[in-house]
Amino acid sequence: MNLIKILDNQPKWRIILLSVLLTSLIGWLDYQIPPEILIAIFYLIPIGITTWFGDNCSGILISLISAVTNLLVNQRQNFHYLHPLVPYWNTVVILVFFLFTNYLLSQQKLTLKNLEKLARTDDLTGLNNRSFFLELVNIEIHKSLRHKEPLTIAYFDVDNFKFVNDQFGHTVGDRLLCLVAENAKNNLRKIDIIARLGGDEFAILLPRTGYEASEIVLQRLHKTLSSAMQVQNWPVTLSIGAITFIKPPASVTEIIERADNLMYGAKKKGKNLLHHELATD
After folding, report:
1. Active site amino acids
2. Model confidence pLDDT, tens digit, residues 60-97
3. Residue 3: beta bridge partners?
4. Do residues 179 and 83 share a domain?
């Protein structure tokens, strides 16, 4: 498992270099043993490493290098084939096998990535889903405690969303949620994390962001989202509850509950509000 993590963090050029060295080593071993003993299957090791930890094109390159290496190794003076073209035919067959293996690994890798994305992504909006958001919050909590940096988390939902669904239909309701997600995402930094928690509820995590800076971001976000709703003539507003921690608690549940309570506090005060607090405890 540690080896997999190490390879996964390496740049592509190192993966290719490692695979070329492994191919050379296998070719040298192939040359040392009798030609009757076939070890061409071991070339799949560098091919697999390159395809999985690099990319499909790199895997094709190593497949070609492996096939050519196998051809050169088997051009021995003391070994005679039934026909001069036999080694070239064998090389073509081996290359096809290598390329097919490369293709299967590439498809498997793509499938796993898609499954991983589906497990972490909200189907409708394309944002992070609740479970993945909680994982990310936990990671950022530990970073905040380790580096002694502030952390801000915000919850917001769409006021009167049920009315839109009832009045205009669920298709319009889905469009509304997608528009909220798109506008919110476009108004955040790359390091900020946004998720749809379910229904019309969303959450935003602002790492390394203090009270003043997060207040500016959230006020701008509230204004932007409100304007987007007005352009569409949708009778909805946004209620946002946010809390900034100088030193966040280690519990993800506690952070989530405090932001959630602030959001519902904003709704009770009349909706269409930003309720932002600074945690001093």
Report:
1. 200
2. 999 999 999 988 887 765 656 666 777 788 889 999 99
3. none
4. no
